[in-house]
Amino acid sequence: FSARVVIDPTTAIGDVPRRLFGTFVEHMGRSVYEGIYEPGHPEAGDDGFRRDVLDLVRELGATTVRYPGGNFVSGYRWEDGVGPRDQRPVRLDAAWHSLETNQVGLHEFADWARDAGLELMYAVNLGTRGIAEAADVLEYANHPSGTALAEQRRANGADEPFGIRLWCLGNEVDGPWQIGHKTADEYGRLAAETARLMTFIDPTIELVAAGSSNADMPTFGEWERTVLRHTMGLVDHISLHAYYEESDGDAASFLASGVGLDRYIDEVAGIIDEVSANATSVADGGAASARPIGISVDEWNVWYQRRWNEVDKPVVMNGEWPEHPRLIEDEYTVTDAVVVGSLLISLLRHSDRVSMANLAQLVNVIAPIRSEPGGPAWRQTTFFPFQLTAALASGAVVRPVVSAPQIDTARYGSVDAIDTVATVAESGRTVLFAVNRSLDEPAELTVSLPAAGAGLVVGRATTLTVPEGGDRHTSNTAAARPVAPRDLDGVRLDSTTLTATLPPLSWTVIVLD
Ligand code: AHR
Fold this sequence. Notes:
By secondary structure, the chain is of the alpha/beta class. It folds into 2 domains: 17-392, TIM Barrel; 396-512, Sandwich (Immunoglobulin-like), CATH 2.60.40.1180. Helices cover 27% and strands 24% of the residues. The chain has helices at residues 51-60, 106-116, 131-142, 148-155, 184-201, 222-231, 251-255, 257-277, 285-290, 305-316, 334-349, 383-392; strands at residues 2-6, 22-24, 64-67, 91-93, 98-100, 119-124, 166-169, 206-209, 237-244, 294-302, 354-360, 369-371, 377-379, 396-398, 401-403, 406-409, 413-416, 418-424, 430-436, 443-448, 458-464, 486-487, 492-494, 497-502, 506-512. The chain has an 8-stranded parallel beta barrel, surrounded by 6 helices. A 6-stranded antiparallel β-sheet has the order 14-18-19-25-21-22, covered by helices on one side. A hairpin with a 5-residue loop joins strand 18 (418-424) and strand 19. 50% of the residues are buried. Residues 26, 69-71, 171-172, 299, 360-361 line the site of alpha-L-arabinofuranose (AHR). Keywords: Carbohydrate metabolism, Glycosidase, Hydrolase.
């Protein structure tokens, strides 16, 4: 089929927020232990962190990392993870029915994140704990010296404060599965008062209030409205979490997940605007209008959650209490990678409202990077669209005008067969990201560039699609890694008209310099 795309930089919606390429490390499963940290592994450094995994993390090119949870944080005592390791307690992690040894905590993780080039985004426990403990961990982390908590940090080896700017006020508090689950009013009040005290202690921080766990929550919408009425003027971002999966073989709906994310973000943006417009009825009305709220897509990815909820979770939650068991180690296919590419396109398309986003998670647990104990580490299929988007998206984001055939989906109605976004840098470098959602037809794409595009040449054209001899379910494993991006042949730029053939079921990036 044929599709036309028009890129008009005068319609740019703003610059690519670098924090859009965040990620997430939770103390769950083999994310930390046997993931990033495995003393005794041949690749482990003196600090016990795996160098081969660290290299892949650096290659991924993420910008921020959310830590330490997730559901885990709602039962976590941060103090357990600081001080001499041989005195740290082993605790039950009731969120994931595991034992937490606390061998990795704030110091070790902050050092690792710095080595990995990641900005740390720290989540406080608003499940079993509250205002005082959130204030304590902030003071411990960020206050320079001269108080009991700051001196404790220094005695524990960190003379300089960690200087953490980004703080999440709890996690998925709207979900009945969450330890310390609350109503929107209960959470809104707690989040507001926690935010107030944390800002008194360190006015340079940015705070994220917890929004909905997914767009199908019965409380979605009213939750955001209520929480924002309590917290507007006191926080900088509200979160949303979004996971997608292919259900009952409905590939068409799955490949349209980006449309689902578009609508979800648009709804939250609308609620932010609505509450902002009525800010005079908010307790902190004066400050509210002066403190814009961004959307933090704190957790997003493909996750075969139905399998977790219906098959694995009932077993895990009623069994033994193991240390770092294998939990939700989804093995991603080509189809999953194309959807991840499309979700990144959706995030870029909303750069005017999405202030940051975290691919959940980073290693082993629904992750772009996998590792085996004592064994190799490797790139899952989803690694590639994330890495290439983080590396190549720069400058202003442009939403192209698309004319393409429609694909009928059970979940989202008719959607464009092509999904695209572009970025245009000051140098003129124009980067087009495109997904062909058709499972069996190539897309003959014609892209009209602005007159300024006349001097550009095709610098790079890369596609991720079904490999030779594979199918849409092909994945990368410890034994074989057949899925990798390859050059897209036949891309032509003729003055201001670009033509390319996008393979069926593919994610593509074309760079014009
Ligand atoms: O990322 C896995 C889990 O998904 C997180 O712990 C939780 O916040 C979400 O439900």
